[in-house]
């Protein structure tokens, strides 16, 4: 049944006196009780809806549904990174190894931290990567590799047998999630670290919905108000919370190219994670894969771009159902397709004194790191030959340190 919205009135609205609930409070109290009134930032509301679905673990031994067999009515036709394995894993292994030899060997271990939501995918990619490194390195050098898997959200009771068959030192961290205070309290590493986010993190990090109000001449953040009978409405307030304020400062610090009253989804959670990594592991390298925003410019749009300054865009939100944001029983997931060039600028600003990154299509990355012998028909198995063609047509892109 569709949820009814409150009517929006064009008048000065008194600030709601509903108690503010955070994502953590919603999780710890099992949601909103009947008859309870509350206010929730749209970011926390979406995160509360999303996290049980994105961390829902499939049976590891169950064959995952490939993209080609998904119904065309499914709005989530994102590329599956496992379709490109083991070619992709071998290229990633070379990238990690070359950067390690150039920057950290022999004084430090090769510490790899894979932040994940998709446990079966994470296990498979880890196995492919570590197996390849084992086959190419000496025993002494391979022993310097330490691989950690950290969930985006708490993921308990993961059986250790899932690591059976994976060579080397691999650790499943499951008793705490990635959060702003994660690394300060429990995972402080002084050595250099390679951070991986392999096509299952960026699209799930929740966003704030904001706008720059021409009436208030200030930024406003979107909240969800819930009344006594469970009806919901969204409202915009100039009293924005701390995390949203930090994200706005990163994205619009110079106040340039603002568009008044335009609603924008901004990647608050992802910026929070990037700042946490910078503050606690300044010596790190980032390697993130996901689906970026892409445009097909027309002649008219090109002419407009010459006449008007570029506007900072919004992440695209993809929902399974049109009313999913306001549904208490949403079984789907809300995805965000972010602007990778914007993320690149944010990352470079956060890490201005130490690290920078660039954006690269996955096809260009593989072309750069696959060897001539691997590209040859004789060295590729029957399964890997179509993988190379699929990678060339992939929509995925990589955001990685330089």
Please write out the topology.
Elements: E1 20-21, H1 23-28, E2 38-41, H2 42-54, H3 87-103, E3 110-116, H4 119-136, H5 139-142, E4 145-151, E5 169-172, H6 182-186, E6 193-198, E7 208-213, E8 218-226, E9 232-237, H7 242-252, E10 264-266, H8 268-280, E11 284-290, H9 299-307, E12 316-318, E13 335-337, H10 340-350, E14 357-361, H11 362-369, H12 372-375, H13 384-392, E15 397-401
Parallel strand pairs: 1-2, 3-4, 3-6, 4-5, 6-11
Antiparallel strand pairs: 2-8, 7-8, 7-10, 8-9, 11-15, 12-13, 14-15
- Which stretches are poorly predicted, pLDDT < 50 over at least 5 residues? 1-14, 59-75, 304-311
Helix proportion of residues, in percent? 25-40%
Number of helices: 13
State the end-to-end CA separation: 50 Å
Mean pLDDT: 82
Q: Give the biggest beta sheet.
A: 7 strands, mixed
For the CA atoms, what is the radius of gyration?
Answer: 22 Å
CATH architecture of the domain at 53-58 and 76-206 and 265-401: 3-Layer(aba) Sandwich
Structural class: alpha/beta
The CATH topology label of the domain at 53-58 and 76-206 and 265-401 is Rossmann fold
Strand content: 15-25%
EC number: 2.1.1.320
Catalytic activity: L-arginyl-[protein] + 2 S-adenosyl-L-methionine = N(omega),N(omega)'-dimethyl-L-arginyl-[protein] + 2 S-adenosyl-L-homocysteine + 2 H(+)
Main location: mitochondrion
Keywords: Methyltransferase, Mitochondrion, Transferase
């Amino acid at each position: 049944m569709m949820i009814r919205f409150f009517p929006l009135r064009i008048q000065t609205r008194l600030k709601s006196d509903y108690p503010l609930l955070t994502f953590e409070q919603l999780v710890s109290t099992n949601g909103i009780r009947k008859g309870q009134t509350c206010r929730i930032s749209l970011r926390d509301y979406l995160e509360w809806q999303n996290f049980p679905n994105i961390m829902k673990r499939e049976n590891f031994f169950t064959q995952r549904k490939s993209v080609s067999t998904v119904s065309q009515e499914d709005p989530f036709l994102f590329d599956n990174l496992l379709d490109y394995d083991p070619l992709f894993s071998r290229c990633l292994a070379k990238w990690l190894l070359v950067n390690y030899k150039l920057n950290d060997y022999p004084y430090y271990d090769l510490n790899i931290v894979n932040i994940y939501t998709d446990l079966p995918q994470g296990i498979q990619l880890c196995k492919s990567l570590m197996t390849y490194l084992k086959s190419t390195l000496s025993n002494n050098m391979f022993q310097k590799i330490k691989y950690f898997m950290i969930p985006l959200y708490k993921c308990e009771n993961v059986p250790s047998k899932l690591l059976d068959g994976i060579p080397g030192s691999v650790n499943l961290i499951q008793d705490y999630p990635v959060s702003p205070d994660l690394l300060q309290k429990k995972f402080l590493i002084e050595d250099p670290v390679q951070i991986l986010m392999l096509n299952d993190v960026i699209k799930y990090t929740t966003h704030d919905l904001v706008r720059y109000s021409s009436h208030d001449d200030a930024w406003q953040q979107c909240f969800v108000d819930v009344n006594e009978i469970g009806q919901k409405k969204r409202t915009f307030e100039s009293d924005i919370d701390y995390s949203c304020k930090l994200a706005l400062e990163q994205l619009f610090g110079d106040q340039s190219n603002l568009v008044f009253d335009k609603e924008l989804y901004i990647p608050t959670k992802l910026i929070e994670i990037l700042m946490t990594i910078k503050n606690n592991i300044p010596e790190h390298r980032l390697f993130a894969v996901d689906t970026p925003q892409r445009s097909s410019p027309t002649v008219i749009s090109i002419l407009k771009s010459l006449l008007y300054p570029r506007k900072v865009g919004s992440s695209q939100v993809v929902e399974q159902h049109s009313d999913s944001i306001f549904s208490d029983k949403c079984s789907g997931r809300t995805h965000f397709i972010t602007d990778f060039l914007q993320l690149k600028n944010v990352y470079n600003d956060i890490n201005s004194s130490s690290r920078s990154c660039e954006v690269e299509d996955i096809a260009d990355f593989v072309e750069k790191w696959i060897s001539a012998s691997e590209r040859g028909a004789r060295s590729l198995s029957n399964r890997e030959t179509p993988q190379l063609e699929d990678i060339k047509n992939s929509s995925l892109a990589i955001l990685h340190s330089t």
